[in-house]
UniProtKB/TrEMBL annotation:
SUPFAM superfamilies in the cross-refs: MFS general substrate transporter
Compartments in which it is found: Membrane
Swiss-Prot/TrEMBL keywords: Membrane, Transmembrane, Transmembrane helix
Origin organism lineage: Bacteria, Pseudomonadati, Pseudomonadota, Alphaproteobacteria, Rhodospirillales
Naturally occurring in which organism (per UniProt): Ferrovibrio terrae
Superkingdom of the organism of origin: Bacteria
Protein's name in the database: MFS transporter
Amino acid sequence: MSDTASAARTGLLAHPMTPAWVLALAVCLTQFDVTAAAVALPAIRGELGFTLAATAWVMDAYSLAFAGTLFAAGALADRFGRRRILLLGNAGFALASLACGLAWDGPSLWLARAAQGAMSALFITGALATTSLSYPMAAPDLRARAFGIVGVTGGAAMALGPTLGGLIAGEFGWRWIFLLNLPICAVNEWAVRRVIAETRDDAGRPLDLTGVALLTLAIALPVQALLHEGSAIWRWSGVALGAVMAVLLAFQQRGRSQPMLDVALFTRRAPLGIIALLFSISAGYWAMLVYLPLWLQATHDLDIRSTGFAMLAATLPMLALPPLGVRLTRVYGWRANFTGGMLLLAVGMAALAAAAVLKTDLFWALAAMMVAASGAGLSNSQISGALVAQAAAERAGMASALATVLRQSGFAIGIALLGAISAGVGYGPGFAAAALAALLGAMAAAFCLPRQI
């Protein structure tokens, strides 16, 4: 019996796809935590007595730390080993999740969420780098299957996060959304140590602390200014100062022999259009997901479980429609698919804004959510790949990291902007702003992108 079990375990661990499934579990956990936490925001707000701006910081603290740490995580993984950084991120994420579950006020929760974001950057960087090295270009079929496993499980985690998060929070309380990460992190630790081999690059990229600081300030200053309950002058001064930090970052990167950002991508029309798309879909769709649970519970009197199921209208199309988006791109081209997808997102968000202002019944709200999510689902999964395709082959990894940073930056700034617009006037104007962001993305795709990339 023991020999049979041992042989079965050895066979499972020796399967060529086992590393992919182990690494997918790591990615899955961080993706689940984003959308699951969003559905718990009303409960967090009620228990800790948050304003709308304070509630937004629960998500933005995570995104800012993630975006600011990502490039540094890549350099650390190259220097100290990808598996080691993955395990460090896993252990740190577990401790940060424990701190989230035990948080007693706003600052303690925001600090814990920031730690989660930073550890997620280590986690994701180690997992994706290890996936790439475990399945090299020389084995294209295995490589495609491995990244497919990681991508599909991550997408499923994000799509089902609100529903599962609502069930967990409704049954046990919102703190258990974070505390249940602990046993999963323990499984991650066990599996990674047994399946994943260590790799490092002694001649890897240097750690650019100045660049990391400028990048973090370029994102954090606008977010802080938009969420600060002060005068319009204060808010726009913070946004302008963030833009100055972004310009300084560009000059600083241009002068480095091994930059962490490919500044040349910001000087060509097609990459600029794709960058605008990344910001637009993050602000027009992903940031909207943060405010939907708050609106659904406040306007339609849903409990947290019902809210989780209602959120499926805004998440399931993101899981189901990417294959259709790929086929449409093959037939009609990148420009047509991205323009059409972003226009559909804009229509859905405009309908949702109308539903919020007119106080329509829940059916119309769910229909608008589904239309918006369908537009995002046709475009979202392909935008990062389009940016990578614009970079030189030797800079593909940098372009992929840049796409992730731009997504998180757009998410953080979008949350802050929609929160600033919605504060005191209701969610309708915030949803209208998301529709405008999607419309600007459609215009960027129509005027900046070639038919094929």
